[in-house]
From TrEMBL:
<keyword id="KW-0597">Phosphoprotein</keyword>
<keyword id="KW-0007">Acetylation</keyword>
<keyword id="KW-0698">rRNA processing</keyword>
<dbReference type="GO" id="GO:0008033">
    <property type="term" value="P:tRNA processing"/>
</dbReference>
<dbReference type="GO" id="GO:0006364">
    <property type="term" value="P:rRNA processing"/>
</dbReference>
<comment type="subunit">
    <text>Component of nuclear RNase P and RNase MRP ribonucleoproteins. RNase P consists of a catalytic RNA moiety and about 10 protein subunits; POP1, POP4, POP5, POP7, RPP14, RPP21, RPP25, RPP30, RPP38 and RPP40. Within the RNase P complex, POP1, POP7 and RPP25 form the 'finger' subcomplex, POP5, RPP14, RPP40 and homodimeric RPP30 form the 'palm' subcomplex, and RPP21, POP4 and RPP38 form the 'wrist' subcomplex. All subunits of the RNase P complex interact with the catalytic RNA. Several subunits of RNase P are also part of the RNase MRP complex.</text>
</comment>
<dbReference type="GO" id="GO:0005655">
    <property type="term" value="C:nucleolar ribonuclease P complex"/>
</dbReference>
<dbReference type="InterPro" id="IPR002738">
    <property type="entry name" value="RNase_P_p30"/>
</dbReference>
<comment type="function">
    <text>Component of ribonuclease P, a ribonucleoprotein complex that generates mature tRNA molecules by cleaving their 5'-ends. Also a component of the MRP ribonuclease complex, which cleaves pre-rRNA sequences.</text>
</comment>
<comment type="similarity">
    <text>Belongs to the eukaryotic/archaeal RNase P protein component 3 family.</text>
</comment>
<keyword id="KW-0539">Nucleus</keyword>
<dbReference type="InterPro" id="IPR016195">
    <property type="entry name" value="Pol/histidinol_Pase-like"/>
</dbReference>
<keyword id="KW-0819">tRNA processing</keyword>
<dbReference type="GO" id="GO:0003723">
    <property type="term" value="F:RNA binding"/>
</dbReference>
<dbReference type="Pfam" id="PF01876">
    <property type="entry name" value="RNase_P_p30"/>
</dbReference>
<protein>
    <recommendedName>
        <fullName>Ribonuclease P protein subunit p30</fullName>
    </recommendedName>
</protein>
Amino acid sequence: MSVFMDLNLSFSEDRSQLQSLVEMAAHLGFSTVAINYVFEPTAKKKQEIPVPKPINELMDQLPIVQGRSRPIRVLNRLTVVMSDSSHFRPNAAEYRRFDLLAVHPTTEKLFHSACMLYDVDIICVSVTEKLPFFFKRAPVNGAGERGVVFELCYSAAIRDSTLRRYTIANALTLMESCRGKNVIVSSAAEKALELRGPYDATNLYPAAEGLLFGLSDADAKEAVSSTCRSVLLHAETRKTASGIIYTMKSCSQQEETPESEPCRYSQEPVNVPQSSTVDVLTV
């Protein structure tokens, strides 16, 4: 059974509204959600990076995930809206307070830097306006090689028909470059009514997977499950600088045949050693 995630629930000072968001996500079957704090620095005045609030201060008890016997997992995420290279501070200690780190570049130069240089987990794709640049395949592939994913949000498309056109157009432009890989689909919901279930998120409109968003059935499912899990593993690697754990199959080597003895074919059954699973820690 797949574990579904929504890594973008908009933070609200209204505690009851935020609690209803998390409860709705658990009811729809999401096992993990991330509360998103947006930081948009400006040149006019100095702004402080927001401080995430502990989950126990936001809600008294975490709701149980629909179809599972465990409570929902709630993470904290910071999204930095960048209109200048100075807006992102790679060594800022404030970033370590968050479980996930995302950037929203607004120019082509910043988008290229986010893909190739910045140590982040998620690159946000604008859905509220027409993109001023095109996605080039080189930086998009570079981001994929570094484990950075791109995020598409659908809640804006629910609010307004104009934003819906921007969402679809920008999504198609991205899919032409990344071919549906390294993409997550999130809600960016501000209200509980803007949330959709894991399978509905990529089927908001007729033939959304094949024609509009450019996602196949398999890619659409990965966009709300396995790719999100890869984001969490990448975030742990970024914070600890010690790598992630993955599994690989290794078979014991068979006895080597002497060079002087030619190989012979035999019709007798041969016992093949079973594969064993080994945990490897990569740096």
